[in-house]
Amino acid sequence: MNEKKTVWVTGAAGFVGGEIARRIADYGYNVVGTDTEVSVCDDEGLQAFANELHPDIVINAAGIPRFATGLSNRIKAYEVNALGAKNVAVAANQVGAFLVQISTDDVFPPRMAEAANEFDSPHPETPYGKSKRAGEVMVRDIMPDRSLIVRSSWLYGTTGGMVKHSLDAAKAGDKVKMRTDQISSPTSISTYVSFLEKAIAKEASGTLHIVGSGTCSRYEFASKVLELCGYDPQAVLVPSADLVTAEQVLLESLMLEMFGAELPAWEKDLESFLVAEGLAK
User: Fold this and answer.
1) Secondary structure of residue 210 in the 3-state scheme
2) Angle, CA 186 vertex, CA 153 and CA 122 arms, to 5°
3) Which residue, among 117, 119, 94, 90, has the nearest Cα to 105 in the 3D structure?
């Protein structure tokens, strides 16, 4: 337990930031979450808040998400995902805090023949991926020895994403389209935060991938969600595909494996998560 350590989570109103703030508190940390009231684009405001709070650990989960990032607003994406990350790093550095930068598999291309590990060089192809990669680089430049870049794929919880979308449709008797040609490794937010906390406790610097083992399509994942929750997937899901936006993004948790950690297969992780949330039948 770390009762005396204070964790500051930026972007705490978002799905990932909010889940991290809520779940990391269960490990005994004093957690303070902020969102737009302490904007990552306001360097002076960030520094003033950091000086007042004096956190031991800062987790930067603030960002413009993928679905809201395109060519039309890429400047805003860079302001938040890149310069915002730099501002958080400066604020964390000035108070001697350890910084965790929440990143994404989008720093790699959307069509990959094999999984990328932490030693592979990112090559983003989208405005979102490029802005997140720029944020990674800025954090590493400012805090090379006191920062951790964390990437994952298809993080899911109950407050958003494919789990909620699928179950909401099933409860309402609606049909929902799910892609058969977008493939990755789903990871529950509970498993993600569990490994994140272990890394924080050790103040492990560098880059870390936290992804469940195995891969599936969005359609396969949603089907498993519905099946485990007592619904007929075929009554809810409509398979869809589009060659233009087909994806296969694969990450390997090589660093965790090197240290003997075992990430659960995505099916087992999903079942354990749904049971813990009281949703499995």
Assistant:
1) coil
2) 20
3) 117
Cross-strand partners of 32? 8
Burial of 129 (0-12, 13-18, 19+ CB in 10 A): buried
φ and ψ at residue 247, rounded to 5 degrees:
-140, 150
Q: Which positions ≥6 away from 68 have C-beta within 8 Å?
A: none
Distance CA 127, CA 75 (A): 9
pLDDT in tens, 60-110: 999 998 777 777 778 899 999 999 999 999 999 999 999 999 999 999 999
**Amino acid identity, position 58:** V
Query: Rounded to an integer, what distance in angstroms lies between the CA atom of residue 107 and that of residue 65?
Result: 13
Does pTM top 0.90 for this prediction?
yes
Residues contacting residue 217 through CB under 8 Å, at least 6 positions apart: 178, 179, 180, 181, 182, 183
